[in-house]
Design a protein that fits this description.
33% helix; 107 residues; 5 strands; single chain; 3 helices
C-alpha cells in the first residue's frame, strides 16, 4: 500500500479515537516528513500544498456521526470516512435478514 493512503488511514484512526467535539483540521506533510496542523477554513487541499510547500495535505472533518479524511498530494487523491455510531451484530453483512427472522420467530 502506498505511503499516501497509509497516512490517510492512520490519520482517520487517530481522528476517530480523538476528541469528539474537535473541529475540522488540516494536516500538511512536507517533503522531509515534517508536519503542520492548521484550520482548513477557506482553503482547498491543492492551495494548502502550494502555499506551504507541502508534499501532501489531509483535511479531517467531523460530520454528524462520521469522521472524514480527504487527502491530496503528488497527483493522488483519497477520501476515507468512518461511522462513529456503535456497531451492532445486525449491521454485519448478511446478518440483517437473520436478525429480522429471529425477531419474527420469537414473537
Amino acid at each position: 500500500m502506498k505511503a499516501f493512503l497509509r497516512q490517510a488511514e492512520d490519520i482517520l484512526d487517530i481522528a476517530v479515537e480523538g476528541d469528539r467535539d474537535g473541529g475540522n483540521l488540516a494536516i500538511l506533510i512536507d517533503r522531509q516528513g515534517g508536519m503542520r496542523m492548521l484550520d482548513p477554513q477557506g482553503w482547498s487541499l491543492p492551495a494548502l500544498c502550494a502555499e506551504f510547500g507541502a508534499a501532501a495535505a489531509y483535511k479531517v472533518e467531523r460530520r454528524a456521526r462520521t469522521v472524514r479524511v480527504e487527502g491530496w498530494g503528488g497527483g493522488e487523491r483519497c477520501l476515507l470516512q468512518r461511522d462513529l455510531a456503535p456497531r451492532r451484530v445486525s449491521d454485519l453483512p448478511g446478518m440483517r435478514a437473520a436478525y429480522r427472522e429471529q425477531r419474527f420467530l420469537a414473537a
